[in-house]
Amino acid sequence: MRMRMRMRQRGFAVCAVCIVAVPATGIAAGQVGNDEKFVVVRAGRVITVSGEEYAPGMIVIADGKVRLVGQNLEYPDGATVIDARGQTVMPGMIHVRTRFGLPSYNRPGVRGDLKALDEVVLSQIEFEELLEAGFTAVCYTPFGDGIAGVAGVLRTGGAESARRVKDAAYLRVDMTDPASDKGTLRNALKKAQEEIDKVEKARQEWEKKQKEKAEAEKKQQEEQQKKEGEEPKPGDKPAPSPPKPEEKPQPPKPSPPKPGDPGAAPPVEAPKEGEKKEPEQFVPPAMDPAHLPLIDLIQKKYDVPLFIELDQASDYLHAEDVLKPHKEFPRVYWLGARLPNRASDYDYVVKALGEKKALVVVPPAIYYLPLTVEQYNLAAELTKAGCKVACAPWWDAPLEFDRVRSRLADLVRGGLARADALKSVTAHAAEAAGVADRLGTIEKDRDADLVFLSGDPLDPRSEVTQVMIGGEIVYERKDGRR
């Protein structure tokens, strides 16, 4: 088989002249770096999520990033070839909201200075349980009420130096108890604005002092020039000198200390010829670090969006009431505080979320409408309304991780489009975690974080056989193990 594969590779090299004229189907000699490491995946099926599916399909990977995806692609001699012609390959799944392996605790108030990734000790978490289910990245969220802190994204495998994908993914805002959470958010926004005003006031005072200083220097300079203009001219009679008082003998004055002697002043370096004095710079007063993410949002720096957690439809209305003056804030909504298959009234706000084209994260489950036995496919209804929907497991348990794909299949049977179901754990999940520029799809320049399955991703009988992160296989299923 290896000899046959080498012959196939040589065959592709011989035919290079025939296909170099079509860059989309191959890699020309000028496109290959001297030290690039190439890996080629030959799959029975490639689901890119971003567009076309290829059956069979190929993925050409260079230095851990996707270079080409399609069919009958050219690749350099010496590339490592992975034969997955009996398997389906798709982007790795992303868990948008997790505390897997981390403790839970009650931490109310405003803690925007805290980062969830600072709590993670890689050696103490069994990431293999996530890899087995097909998750290549997870977004760790801070725990607590109010404004709990900043979430961050980690890869579930690969070189430790490359595990951190993004330190600041979103700012978690709890709105499941509006009686207290609404006031916390409103006061936090007020405090953030006060911090901005404090700096602006300090800047204005500094600018005023600088202006006064400049005016004083200018006045002094004008007086000096005027004084110099009043000096006696040649031919003028000198003014009579006053009589000198009788001088008395004075004791000798002590000589000043020499440089280096105790009490001597430090030597003052004379400015070099042509050297200009650096202008004074404004040094702003320190801001409260707990409110910095909100300050960035108000100042339109948009470092992190708000991740607003809701328990029922009215929580959404309370959150939007507080955020009415800040409509430009980027938001992600988590509709999933209730237990699975319980009654939910989220249907009351589906239309409003759709009008915003909101990015919404939900558990992959079918709800019941309140006080009825009528099932309600929230993910499908949100998608129809115009939302982007990401799905995240109900809770952090290996069994639940393993059930995500079968739960997505339930949503598809209930009316959610297959493409939207796959995007909910890949492309849309990557967007919710702030890493859509690197993860979530199989396309040029994205990280080669891939999942290999024995069959269709939504077939409950299919299993994760291998997981690739950054172009390296980091997990292989053992026989007889799911």
Give a structural overview.
With 482 residues, this protein is α/β, with parallel strands linked by helices. It folds into 2 domains: 1-92 and 441-482, Urease, subunit C, domain 1, CATH 2.30.40; 93-208 and 285-439, Metal-dependent hydrolases (TIM Barrel). Helix content is 27%, strand content 22%. The chain contains 11 helices and 18 strands. Strands 1, 2, 3, 4, 5, 16, 17 and 18 form an 8-stranded mixed beta sheet that branches. It has an 8-stranded mixed beta sheet with strand order 6-7-8-9-10-11-12-15. Strand 3 (57-62) and strand 4 (65-70) form a beta hairpin. Helix 4 (178-229) packs across helix 5 and helix 4 packs parallel to helix 6 (313-322). The longest helix is centred in the middle third of the chain and has 52 residues, at 178-229. Mean pLDDT is 87; it is low at 1-24.
